[in-house]
Amino acid sequence: MRVTPRRGSWCAEAWCFHTRWCPYWHRCPSELTPLVLRVPIERRLELDLIPAPGWEQEYHAPRRLEAQWGSVDEDLENEGGSFRSVLHVVLPSQTVATEDYPAFARFCQAVDELTTRPPRLRRASDQ
Fold first, then answer.
1. What pLDDT score was predicted for residue 68?
2. How far apart are the first and last CA of the chain?
3. Residue 32 pLDDT more than 80?
4. Using an 8 Å Cβ cutoff, are 92 and 27 in contact?
5. Are 20 and 112 in contact (CB under 8 A)?
6. How far is 55 from 108, CA to CA, in rounded Å?
7. Sequence-ordered list of residues with C-beta below 8 angstroms from that of 114, at least 6 positions apart, any chain
8. Paired strand residues for 22
9. What is the model's pLDDT at position 65?
10. How far is the C-alpha of 78 from the C-alpha of 55, rounded, in Å?
11. What pLDDT, in 10s, does the model give residues 58-91?
């Protein structure tokens, strides 16, 4: 993991737990045929972060996304200086019609953005 400065705080990068969805769905030939997801997709992505002394996790609201194609929901815990984020990603089995494919691809892009957003740290005295 690499930690880099970003807009007055520090950002932990390169902690992606899964393959991004958007590049995969963009390669599908769904402009011509419906996209059939025969099996539901359910992922649980868990991150435990224990900052170095003098650093703390910046607060952010839990990540949430609800759409007709699926959802992303985050549970957050902050206890004793450590931080836990648990993301639940759900895509039910479904058929995406060809005319709905651009909106479905945007949904997958949003899921990618939410599930790969790195945690941000700040010095404990920078409040």
1. 94
2. 25
3. no
4. no
5. yes
6. 33
7. 63, 65, 72, 87
8. none
9. 93
10. 13
11. 888 888 999 999 999 999 888 877 888 898 989 8
